[in-house]
Amino acid sequence: MIDAENVTISDSEWEIMRVIWTLHQVTSRQLIDTMHETQGWSDSTTKTLLSRLIKKAAVRQIGEHRPFSFEPIVTEQESMATAAIDLFDRMCAMRAGKTLEQVINSRELSQSDIKQLLQVLTAKQETAPEMVECNCLPDGDHDCCEVDSNEK
């Protein structure tokens, strides 16, 4: 699989990728029919998005003749991690902990997921600073990022 760090997937392309990741390999007809059923998309919308994903090297075409099949080049887990890291890279570092808390509270997690998160957090706690520095502006004076007492 290719490095997902170099592939940026749009919201609509994510819908295509979810189908391809789930089925592992899909014909163009299966993909068109699925996207029409789940999203109400026209054939041309699905074909356009699929073409973009091929150009981005997220998906590869299998076969020289119709019916073509398609399979993912990037993995789902790496793509999700890259998208999440990109999102957190664009927000204030001082808000990351609270945002992670909100994300965790909004998701259903398995017992094994929670156990893994606890292990990661316990290890991270050993080297964590008392407070994370703001990364919004280069000068270091960041009153805008002070954590509200309501957020603590």
From TrEMBL:
One of its GO terms (biological process) is negative regulation of DNA-templated transcription. Pfam families: Penicillinase_R. InterPro entries: BlaI_family, Cu_transp_CopY/TcrY, WH-like_DNA-bd_sf, WH_DNA-bd_sf. One of its GO terms (molecular function) is DNA binding. Keywords: DNA-binding, Transcription, Transcription regulation. It comes from the Bacteria. Signal peptide: none annotated. SUPFAM superfamilies: Winged helix' DNA-binding domain (SSF46785). Belongs to the BlaI transcriptional regulatory family. This is Negative transcriptional regulator-copper transport operon. It comes from Lentilactobacillus kosonis.
